[in-house]
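We emphasize that the prediction below concerns an isolated chain of 269 residues; any contacts that depend on oligomerization or on bound cofactors are therefore not represented. The input was used exactly as deposited, without trimming of termini.
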Amino acid sequence: MDRPAWAPEGVDMTQASPARMYDALLGGSHNFEIDRKAAEMGKMLVPDLPRVALSNRAFLRRAVRYLVDSGVRKFLDIGSGIPTAGNVHEVAQEIDPGFRVLYADIDPVAIAHARAILVDNEQAGAIEADLRKPADLLDQAQATGMIDFSQPVGVLMIAVLHLLGDNDLPGDQVAAVRAAVPAGSFLALSHLTSATRPEDAAKLGANAANENKVGIHFRSCEAITGFFDGWDLIEPGVVELPLWRPESDRDQHETPGRSLGLAGVGRKA
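Result of the prediction step, given as a token string:
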């Protein structure tokens, strides 16, 4: 199996990665054959799965613009995946090239590609870090000089928390990040849910665990809302992906009432 030039040595090309599967669902080119096969299997089980990915990406863009309008100038994207077209740095820096964006992900392929495309961007960078070790992640972020935790930060956790099982204590990890940022900071997150389509969620969860060896944990609206504990939820609260402040009909990639994802934004008072 030939290794693409953008893939670092040591990466297992026979194991699917959530970041690269997401890239495949979005129609990207930075994925391996195993990732494309996993994405196709997901589409066989739930044919509108690519629409979930598009809906999630549309929420990301809207959330970043909202945070910019709210005064955020520095962004920490945790579980960023592969920052292809329409990602945080493009959305934010289109408004102001001076805005800073730091991507963090556990997948070395995602980080290698991020660093390659950001090589000429002095206001954006990427670190390989694990949300399950929030102290180390935050130390790395501080050490880059990109993020100053004495000033408000826009923290993004887009489609990452459903990759953490309950034994990973996702609530504690998010709480550690919330505690590290100052008042005026924001948290924007999206998360797969079983609330709207429990049968489809069960099929995708079982397939991910059995075929791809990737755990996906679909959570309730109540559990997802809990990740904002102690923060002020921005209206309309935690809602289906296409219902969080849609800007036009182009944001309606999924039919309301049938989205497999929930999303919300909170502010530290």
